Amino acid sequence: MNSSTGWERLEPKLEAMARRVRSLEWDPSRRNSFVPYEIETDSAYVRADDGERYLMMSGYSYLGLLGDPRVTEAAKAALDKYGTGNQGVRALAGTIPLHHELEAEIAQVMQREAALVFGSGYAVNTGVVGGMVGPGDTLLIDKYVHASLVDGCKLSGATVTRWRHNDPEHLERRLQMSSPDGMRVVIIDSVYSMDGDIAPLPEIREVCDRYGALIMSDEAHALGVIGKTGRGIEEHFGSFDLVDLKVGTLSKGIPSMGGWVVASKKLLLYLRYHARPFLFSASLGPAQTGAALAALRIMQQEPERVEHIQRESARLRSILVGAGINVGDSETAVIPIICGSDENAYDYATACKKAGIVGLPVVSPAVPTGLARLRIAITARHTTADIDFAAEAFLTAAKQTNLVAA
Ligand SMILES: Cc1ncc(COP(=O)(O)O)c(C=O)c1O
Q1: Ligand 1: does its nearest atom lie under 6 Å from the Cβ of 196?
Q2: Does 406 reside within a domain?
Q3: Which of 237, 239, 259, 340 is the most buried (most CB within 10 A)?
Q4: Ligand 1 pocket residue status of 148, Cβ below 6 Å
């Protein structure tokens, strides 16, 4: 069998990718993607594979619970009790009592009737969107929603229309143009992962109510981060009936794996049989389930973690803005430091690393061309002294790379 033609057709794509990575990471000091970091379980520091210790400023573990002994012990207890995996998918032999306990806890935290836990946040978003709507329905997505939601839209077969980021007036124009015949579902991220801004939910709700449209929000970067006690966008805006369908992950503020959807029992019963990643993929492992449950409980017992994240994020943001650094519309723990070109972002990340901190660049196509950035995330592990150190390093590096005047 001669497969050379197939490989020859792939070759230009492989070469283009290799060239792109080389153009940004041409020197070991500029290497940013796929670097293995060893975490320290009692600090925000990591050790990279160059042997050096850095303050991690781009990690997702918002609540600072990664490596927390209580969470690790809960994972170990689940391992001891249930072993390293489950016996298949949830619908068959793959459900363990711990799944039900975790689902009850998530439903309680999110103030909904029930929850369903999936193997990842990605699986939730593709599964829920793809399973709930179909041809004849319309999905109206904020231009910046996460890729997993975009993929769910593609899988659904519904008509998909995008509206301008965080712009309820533009959403209304799109709703006016959409077909009133099928279901209309507006999809937002509660907190946008690349910009750290919050969806203007009350205004979006008002618009949606005029057209009978449902709202689905992704709480990935909101759980543990916004709202007085970390319960996300509804708590942030002071009312728990603003969203029709909430989804989220257990891999960010909650230091585990997995994803969840909360809704009425009736809708979740339907999704059990129609969300394909739920039906056709193995259930969440016992250790991850146990860890997620413990972390959710700690979040509720220790609201000071959320308060710390919010306070220190605001403090770092105000220092950066005061020094003339562009942080876009950030208002949460995600703070983008906007650098311009992809090369500028790499230059800046390299200078930050020399100053002792890891701030990871996000370049096109993940963000629009010309808006490459370091995506900074503040966690409850960052002490006030860490934030002071990081601020100093960000400013020194900004001067060295002409991001601000020296
Ligand atoms: C907004 C958002 N939604 C969903 C996901 C997917 O979650 P997971 O990593 O648990 O699959 C992510 C992860 O990066 C995300 O940022």
Answers
A1: no
A2: no
A3: 259
A4: yes
